[in-house]
Amino acid sequence: MTTKEKILDASRRLFNTDGLAKVSVRDICKELNISAGNFSYHFPNKDKIILGLYKDMLKEVQVAFETLPRAEISITLYLESHKKVFLIQSKYKFIFLNLFEILTNYPEVKAIYLRNAAFERQMARELFNLYVSKGIIKKGINELQFERILNVGQILNTAWVIDAEIVFKGNKKQQMAYYLSICCGLLEPYLMENSLDEYKMYFNNLV
Predict the structure, then answer these.
(1) How high is the pLDDT of residue 86?
(2) Spans of the chain below 70 pLDDT
(3) Which of 22, 36, 114, 141 gets the most CB atoms within 10 Å of its CB?
């Protein structure tokens, strides 16, 4: 691991445990036992660390999607993709716990966030249509219903980390099953019978 990677990793861990506002450049240097000059050689300030970590998170999400087996489209594949994303979001939980502050104070991150949100909506629409054509999701869902699923889904996928951090009391495995069932449960009423059975089996095996 390079010094730059070590700085990013240590920053992420400190942000997750101590909070974004409480962690200073001095804290990061102390954690790694490096000088301020060594730090500034790689990052001019804390802002660039936050930007770098946000980009790293998006790269990990992209890799997670690219490495999923696509030989056969199924509801299990859909659920597994969400599970991988949720694990990555947990790794970078400080971003979601401080999202309003980050998007307000870091315009570079906000610009990437808005572009990525638009891309995710388009990808969700294409995936939804594919699942309908493959007989996984029922036909006849109108545009208003789809927009509701899409909007609520985006809100849940962004906010579940906050709820998990503050409200949920179970272990990590239970936490994952609980929030996956909430966020992915939006599609449950629209699944074809075979996919619904597969969906239920997935969660039975998950808990």
Answers:
(1) 95
(2) 70-71
(3) 141
Amino acid at 104: T
At residue 73, the pLDDT reads 87
Rounded to whole angstroms, the Cα distance separating 38 from 206 reads: 45
Q: How many CA atoms lie within 13 A of 176 on its CB side?
A: 21
pTM given for the model: 0.92
Q: Domain residue spans in the chain?
A: 74-206
DSSP conformation letters of 139-191:
S---HHHHHHHHHHHHHHHHHHHHHHHHT--S-HHHHHHHHHHHHHGGGGGGB
